[in-house]
Amino acid sequence: MVEEWPGSELSDEELDVAYNVRRKAGEELFARHMARYRDESARAVAGLPGHPGIVYDEASGERLDVWGTGEGLRPVFVFLHGGYWMALSRDVSSFMARGLYEQGVATVVPDYTLAPRASLEEIVRQVRASIAWIHRHGREHGLDPARIVVGGSSAGGHLTGMAMVGGWQEPLGLPGDVVKAAMPISGLFDIRPITRVYVNEAVRLDVERAAALSPALLPAEYRCPAAFVVAENDGEGFLEQSRSFQPQWGAGELLVVPGRDHFDVVCDLADPASPVGAALLGLLRR
C-alpha cells in the first residue's frame, strides 16, 4: 500500500533529521554555499558563447539558457537545479558551463516554476518540455539532440529521475532513449517521505501523489547509463535514497564523494579532473 514506505515508521523529527540538509549545514555555511553558486555561475558564463533566456515552454513562459556552444553540434548537459522545488534558478546554476565548454560540451540550464506557484506535476511537465525543446530545436543552437545527458542536484536529482523513467516520451513525440545518460546528484527517488517534512508546506503532496511522482515506483523500459552521486556528509535520507535506487536501476554506478556535503558536491561538476566531473564526461563520451 502507498501508505507504507521505507522510513514510514520514523517519527517526524527523525525524518526531519534525515532530510533537512539546510538545518544540518547551519545558516552560515548554507549562505556561503548559495553565494558560491551565484559567484561561480557568473564567472563561468562571462564572455561564454551561448543563447540565454530562450522560452522553451509556451504554456508557462519558462526559459532556459544555452551556454558553451562552438563549431558544429555539441553534446549537451542539461542541469536541473535543486532548492527542494521551491528555490534557486538558472541564474545561479551554470557554474559547470565553462569547464564543460573547454571539454567540447554545451550546457543547458532550464528554469521551472517554483512551488507553491506550481504543483510538482507541473514542474515535472516543464522539465520534460525542456528536454523536448532541446530535441526539436537544439540543432538551431549548436546542440546535438542525439547526445543529451541530464543531471541535477537534490530536487533536481528527483527531476532527473523523472526524466529517466518511461511513459512520457512518446506523447511528446520523442524517442524512448532521448535521455542518453543521467547523473542525479543527492537525488530523491521515492518522495513519499517528503509528505512528512517541512518541504510539504510548499509542495503539498499526499502519499498517493508522491508515489505517482517517485522514479523508484515508475516503469522504465529503457534504462540509460547513469552515475548516482551522493556526498559522504549528505543527509542520511539522501544517502539512503541513492543507495537504494542505484541497484534497482541496474544501469549505473554509485559514487559517494568523500569530504563533500549536500550543497558542495554539485560544485565538482565544474572540475573535469574531479571524480564527479570525470564521471560526467564519461557519460557524455559514451
TrEMBL record:
Pfam families: BD-FAE. Keywords: Hydrolase. It is an enzyme of class 3 (hydrolase). It comes from the Bacteria. Its EC number is 3.5.1.9. GO terms for molecular function: arylformamidase activity. Residues 73-165 form the BD-FAE-like domain. InterPro entries: AB_hydrolase_fold (IPR029058), BD-FAE-like_dom (IPR049492), GDXG_lipolytic_enzyme (IPR050300). This is Alpha/beta hydrolase. It comes from Actinomadura livida.
